[in-house]
Amino acid sequence: MSEKSKKIVIELFFVAVIAAVCFKLLHDITKVMDIQFADETAYLGRGIEFGWRSLFADGFIYYAWYKLLSLVVKDAITLYYANYSILFTLLPMLMYALLRKMGRAPFVAAFFPIAFAVSNIHIIAWPFITRFAVCLILLTCLLILSVKNEKLKYLIALCGLILLLYTRPEYVLSLVIFAIAVLIYLVYRFIKSREKVYVFLALITLLLSVFIVFIKNPAGGERSVVAFGQHYALNLQQEGKISINPNTNWQTIMKDTFGTADSVEQAFMNNPRAMVDHILTNIKRLPRRIIEISLPYQTKNTFQVKIAFLIFVGFLALAAIWGFIKNIRTQMQDRVYYILTAVLHIPLIISICLIFPRDHYLLVLFAVVSVLAAKNLPSSKVFGGPGTFFQKGPWPPGANLKVWASYVVLILILIAVPWRAGKNRGLLPHPVRDLKNGCSNRMKITFIKDLKINDRIVFLAAGGSMKPYIDNFRHVPEYQKEAPFNTFLEQEKINMILIDNRLKRDTRFENDNEFKEFLAGVPNQTWTRMDMGKCRIYLLVKKDLLKNE
């Protein structure tokens, strides 16, 4: 066997193990993971309807990704799970490729992505747009380390940042900081070398940054104040200070606390004490949440396990920070990679402190820190470096026990990884029931689609829209109600209502006597009730709508 063939076989083995781990965690995924109607469903809908008008909108790169997938996967429900499965597998694969590009031994380069793949953060983080953002970050870093020309490295980093901020708009801050640092450096290089290419690069950086920040800034609008308001209300709810739904009543809570503030900055000016208390609450919440999400899937959350993983995560963080400081000073050819890594963390840390330590913010930190930590471990002597795997001589390299030990360890890890559906370990999965005994969001979609209604459905429900999954459908959210219930029905021309606890306990409906009388009076000549299996939810449907089935 030739040396080239040996290298290919080795790489394929480690890639296959990572793929097999992901397969175990994705097998029968539809039976254990439900569709969420909020952010991710909205992204999916915008992706299906993606067109030229979507350019430069907040998240349009992710919408374009969904559009490409929808050309192959036509059914919206299948598309939801297909996107999750692709990003779920692609992320650890890119981690492996990046660590191999950094020169890590194959075992170490595979171990860290597998550890990340089986962690709670990788499995539960939602919405999926953040997984897509992490893949963009890893791909950008991989391209930066794959070229030797420093000027090209800067252009790749700049393009990667632009794609990233049109996926997640908070990264516009990273672009600004990176652009300022690059402009200073390029001016310095021009003064020193008098090469006109540095002037050209500086102009491109300046023009693109000005265009994005002042003309096509995706971070504009009310996005930041909405995120802050909802999570400020969520903190109050989790501390037992309020009992109402924070997602739909946050505006009332914001007004009571921060007055007429229409921005995060204004909220701080109006009530700095409340803002500081909110930030301190987020910071106090952070260590415990980090431990919980770093645990491997289905690991018992005991005190001893928490302490062990606190030490492990602390070690990784210290290894990443120490390596970052050491390498940015000594490995000058990779300075662009380290500068990019640094500026990407700034908006994440601000979001965690100012808004909430959401899992999808921490997902980015975990992925990047894992790569940095693995990069700076003395892995060339752990289970053999690249040279020992590709050594000349007889094949297979039986004399190198470290190499064979790495194969055995990875296979044992693969066997130990639980099947997400069924929760059993081993090589074969167990049969499992569908989630929630069929009382899932996917069931709601299927139930309504099976009615085969031809007329337009105007649907009142709390908890997000089903629009991308059902044709000829308009969603009316619960927070849109400002008039008495009967007037609200007439104004919106509502002809179907999902009755569940979330709607009944919403303050806008719970305190409306017309709504209570309406529920008590159905079925009648106009409306009929349709129970949804054994679930404690039901539909109220106008009879005229059912006549046109």
Write structural notes for this entry.
The structure is a single chain. A 5-stranded mixed beta sheet has the order 2-1-3-5-4. Helix 8 (150-165) packs parallel to helix 10 and helix 9 (172-193) runs antiparallel to helix 16 (335-354). The chain has 25 helices and 5 strands. It is mainly alpha-helical.
Brief description of this entry?
Helix content is 64%, strand content 4%. The protein is mostly helical and 549 residues long.
Layout of secondary structure:
Layout: H1 3-26, H2 39-48, H3 60-70, H4 76-101, H5 106-117, H6 120-124, H7 129-146, H8 150-165, H9 172-193, H10 196-215, H11 223-238, H12 246-258, H13 264-270, H14 272-294, H15 303-330, H16 335-354, H17 359-376, H18 386-389, H19 401-416, H20 441-450, E1 457-461, E2 473-477, H21 485-492, E3 496-499, H22 501-504, H23 507-510, H24 513-521, E4 527-531, E5 538-542, H25 543-547
Parallel strand pairs: 1-2, 1-3
Antiparallel strand pairs: 3-5, 4-5
Helix pairs in contact: 1-4, 1-5, 2-3, 4-5, 4-7, 5-17, 7-8, 7-17, 8-9, 8-10, 9-10, 9-16, 11-12, 13-14, 14-15, 15-17, 16-17
Give a short account of the largest sheet: 5 strands, mixed
pLDDT < 50 runs, ≥5 residues: 379-399
Rg calculated over all Cα atoms: 26 Å
The termini sit apart by 66 Å
Spatial order of strands in the largest sheet: 2-1-3-5-4
String of helices and strands: HHHHHHHHHHHHHHHHHHHHEEHEHHHEEH
Shape: globular
Share of helix, binned: 55-70%
The assigned structural class equals: mainly alpha
Q: What number is the mean pLDDT?
A: 85
Count of helical stretches = 25
Give the number of DSSP strands.
5
Report the sheet-strand fraction: under 5%
